[in-house]
C-alpha cells in the first residue's frame, strides 16, 4: 500500500471514530426523555446512563493510549470500534434501565480504547510537521457531528424511537473497524534496532498499578464534578473528591519511582505539551460552561423552542467547521504560540460578550457570541492538539492522545459544574433569592425569573471568560515558529519545510 493511500485510510478511520463518539454524546441527550418514559426509569437512573459512560471513559483514556503504544493503535482502535458497535446494539435491544446503564459503562470502556487511538494512528502515519491538516479535518468533522447530533437525534427519537439513536452507531462502527484492520500501520519500534528505547518509554511494559491509581483519581474527580451541580456538597461528593486527591497523590509518587511509568516523564516535559493540555482544559471548560447557561438563557429567558434555540447557536458549528482548516494554515505560517493565543482570545471575547446579553438581545448579538466561540475553539482544538501529538514520539503517541482526550473530557465537566455552582450562588444573592425550578418565558427557570437569571448570568460568564483568559497566558509558553525536537531521538525526523516557509 502506498504511503498516500495509507494516510488517507488512516485519516478516514480516525475521523469516523471521532465522529461516532461525538454523535453518540449529542444524540443521546435529545433521546433521554423518550428513553426515560419508555423504560419507566427515574431521572437519576437516566443520568447514570451518561455519568457511568463519562466515568469509564475518563478513567481509562491514558491507559488505553498506552495499550495502543504496546499492541498497535490500529488493533486497539479496531477493538474499541467493534466493542462500541456491539454495546450500541445491545443498548438498542435493552429491556430495562439497568441494562442500559451497564452497557453504557461498557460502551465507555470501548470508547476509551478508540479515542486515543484516533490520534495515535495519525501520529504513526504522518510526519510530525504535517499533522496540522489531518487534525484540522478531524476537528471540523467533530464540529459537524456535534452540530448535526441534536437534529439527527431529535428526528430519530421522534419518528423511530430512542433505540434508533443507538442502532445508528452500529454500521459506521463496524465499517471503521473493517477499514482499520485492512490498514497495515507501521510498528511503533524504530527502524534502527541498534538504538534501544529508553526504559521509561518501553511499550512492552504496562504500569498496571499506575493505571489503577489514575483511573481512581479521574473517576473520583468526574463523579464529584457531575454530582456537585445536582446535590451540592454531600458526604458522597466529598468522599469522591477525597478519593481523587489521595489517588492522585499516590499516582504522582508511584510514577516518580517506577522504572516504566504509565506517563513517561518525557511526554509532559516536551516543549509546550503541559501548557497545551492546560489550554484544552481551560478553553473547553469556558465554552461548555457558557453553552450550558446559554441553553437556559435561550429557552427560559427568551422563550425560544429547542429548534429555534438550535438555529441561534448555528454560527458556532459553522465557524468551528470552517475555521479548523484555516487554523492549520495559520499554525504553519504563524506557529503554535501566536495561533493558539488568537484562538484563546476569541473564546475569551465570545464568553465575555455573552455575559452582556439581556432580555432584549437579538439574533445578531447572540450569533456574534457564538461565532467568536466557534472560531476560537476550533483554532485552539487544532493547534493545542497538534502540539501535544507532534511532540510525542511514535512510542508514546498513545499516551499523548490519551492525555489530550482526558483534557477534553475533564474540561467540559469542570465548566458545567462551575457554571451551575456560580449561577446558584449569584442567583441566591440576587432579587428573588433564586426561585425554584420550573419552566416558561421569563423565568420560572432553575435560577429564578428572567431578571434574576440575567443578573446571575453576567458575573458567572465573566468568571468563565477569565478561565478562558488563562488559556491566553498558557499560550505564551507554546513553541513559536522555530522547530522543536520531538521527545525521542529514535523517532523519525520531521520532513523539511519548503525554502522560506516557517514551520509550526
Structural class: mainly alpha
Order of helices and strands: HHHHHHHHHHHHHHHHH
* Gyration radius, rounded: 22 Å
- Helix coverage percent of residues? over 70%
Percent strand: under 5%
Largest sheet: none
Count of discrete alpha- or pi-helical segments spanning 4 or more residues: 17
Q: Oligomerization state of this entry? A: single chain
Q: What is the overall shape?
A: globular
List the helices and strands and how they pair.
Blueprint: H1 3-39, H2 43-71, H3 73-92, H4 97-125, H5 132-159, H6 163-167, H7 170-182, H8 208-231, H9 235-257, H10 265-269, H11 273-301, H12 306-312, H13 314-334, H14 336-354, H15 363-390, H16 397-429, H17 450-475
Helix pairs in contact: 1-2, 1-4, 1-5, 1-7, 2-3, 2-4, 2-8, 2-16, 3-4, 3-7, 4-16, 5-13, 5-15, 8-9, 8-16, 11-14, 11-15, 11-16, 11-17, 13-14, 13-15, 14-15, 14-17, 15-16, 16-17
Explain how this protein is built:
This protein is an all-alpha fold and 504 residues long. It is 75% helix and 0% strand. It is built from 17 helices and no strands. α1 packs antiparallel against α4 (97-125) and α8 (208-231) packs parallel to α16. It is globular and about 60 Å long. The two termini are 29 Å apart. Mean pLDDT is 82; it is low at 187-195, 434-444 and 482-504.
